[in-house]
Request: fold
Amino acid sequence: MLPNTNPTTTKSWKKLQEHFEAVKDVHMKDLFAADAERANKFTIKWEDFYVDFSKNRITEETLGYLLQLADEVKLKDAIKSQFSGDIINQTEGRAVLHTALRAPKNAEFKVDGEEVMPEIYAVKEKIERFTNDVVSGTLKGYTGKAFTDVVNIGIGGSDLGPAMVVDALQFYKNHLTTHFVSNIDGDHVNEVIKKLDPETTLFVIVSKTFTTQETLSNANTIKEWFLKSANEDAIAEHFVAVSTNIEKVQGFGIDANNIFPMWDWVGGRFSLWSAVGLTISLAVGYEHFDSLLKGANKMDDHFKNEDFDSNIPVVLALLSVWYNNFFNVESEAVIPYSQYLNQFATYLQQGIMESNGKSVDRNGNPIDYQTGTIIWGEPGTNSQHAFFQLIHQGTKLIPADFIGFGKSLHGNQDHQDKLTSNFLAQTEALLNGKTEAEVVAEGTPEAIIPFKIFSGNKPTNTIYINKLSPESLGKLIAMYEHKIFVQGIIWNIFSYDQFGVELGKQLASKILQEFNTSATNEHDSSTQNLLDFYKKLR
Ligand SMILES: O=P(O)(O)OC[C@H]1O[C@H](O)[C@H](O)[C@@H](O)[C@@H]1O
Reply:
């Protein structure tokens, strides 16, 4: 059981409220000027991570109250509960053990009194063997040719994690070309099919439940297309599946040997560490996949053992609570200064918004404080030329995580220097802004002066990592996973269910019947008109 405390009833919350009134207008520029040690005080150095959170609208007092809040909501107990396999996903009656997937073989993780490491390692070994056979070309397609292409068919957690990681690690990629099919929009699958040769393509169907409409429809469409060139027997050589639902997978016609199991104690959006990451392993090789897991495991140890004041996920979560619940900030940006992390914000959107987008507390009561933040972002420097205007001069306060890597993977120092200068300059600009006096001093015509002033005082975290590698990426992803968990604990919500995605699915299946049969359902007049409009078009 998780601790159960309404955060707004804690002493620290009250103190934070009073403290907020006192510091809300303080400019960070003045805080830096007043304390030469500020940057050092608010920096955590851990392994190859350098996390500078000094450019936040906080003082030591703020951090003190936030840390007290973590204690008052019994965060330590909650962490222990999660790692020991308690049923902390109470609404679905499940443990939450994605951390076990990346733990060493001799670690102890139990679910319902049963050791889970042997099963985890059996699947890992299967992933390793399969990866090696496909990558080396030992395993062949139905006409005896080695595989050249891999198609991941899945959606949500069965797509976003693998797709983001494969993209992020493309520098480490082997010769296999990977594709991702997720959307029910038939144009998605058809555009992918156009690029494929059935003789040399391997299909990985990923679905925890194996009931997801999108995934099954896409898998069936691909199977039909495949069977135009191959016969039924060839399915066993070209289709593999990742799922908890073995019966359904077999029903689809997949060979029992080609099933990579997962478990209900792995949430979809936390599943890339399981066999859901098979496409990652195929794309970059098992060793790199394993390094990704090892990196995550190091972050798990840091999270579990480090004191909260130097615990990266805890501090980041507390800062986010400070803005969300006291500054009433609605959204946070994630800006990676690496094109490789192009899909990172999209990936985090599911993790963060599906987990913490809740309005009922752990007692089932409606909440009267803000929970889940809205996450968005794009890589720098592209985003500088797109939405940075609003971050610098708009009316909304948008705290941002700036993620950067010291070393360029291709060793192009000229580009890396220019990239890094932007990376550093943006957080400096957001901190300091530009005063009227500075604008005047630049000789700006008087009428234009107000438009060129930057208020500054915009908070950022700088997450600076030596180099993008499978291991550092694993650490980074796990860092955000734990941040999500901490925030869920503070907000007293259940972060591991996602009932909010169900209603739309139910209604869609009813509406679908109306297209194909004479069934009619009661709709509001807007929906009815739109439905009629479509019926005329189809
Ligand atoms: O892996 P699957 O069972 O196909 O689920 C795919 C996705 O769909 C669901 O609707 C949930 O919102 C996601 O959390 C999940 O990752």
